[in-house]
Specification:
The N and C termini lie far apart (73 Å). The N terminus is likely disordered. With 185 residues, the chain is of the alpha+beta class. The chain has one domain. The radius of gyration is 21 Å and the shape is globular. Strand 1 and strand 2 form a beta hairpin.
Amino acid sequence: MTGFVAPGTLLARSARACALAALLAFATPAAAGTWNYAIDRNDGHELTFIEDGKVTFYLGCGRFFALHARYPGNAKEEGKARITISSGKASMMFDGEFVPHGTVQVPKPMELATEFAQNYLGYAKNDSRVYGKTWLAKRARLYAMLGSGQPLTISAGKDSYQLPPVDAANWRTPFERCGVSGDSW
């Protein structure tokens, strides 16, 4: 009989299609933005993830070392904050501050969706340990996660979101030299 499909077969196909659709929905990164690497003449190296025209992840190294990210969950206006960034089996916890998101004009106009900020990987700007052996090892772990080719999960408590693997060209070597090669950028 042509065109006949057994009732159990149709149900099995529908279940497989639904399962596949659910897998794709949960396995793909939530973000549909782009990774960018740029050198700013005032601030040095910048690695950003831009989604819907807003910077949701920022790593800068030049006159400073800064990590900013959109806070997963309900962000406060101010106060202490903690996020975890993980990629594959690696993860790192970052203690920082809540910051208001908005637009900055200097050094260049950027619409920020970031609500978490940490500078110098948790050290004070003038701490003699910044760019020391322990600090560089912590920075190397962060760069290894970012360069792993795996999606990044940004989490805080039970809330999280995922960014696609960093695919910005030529970002890593300049970041690794930043601050330790005699010139800051």
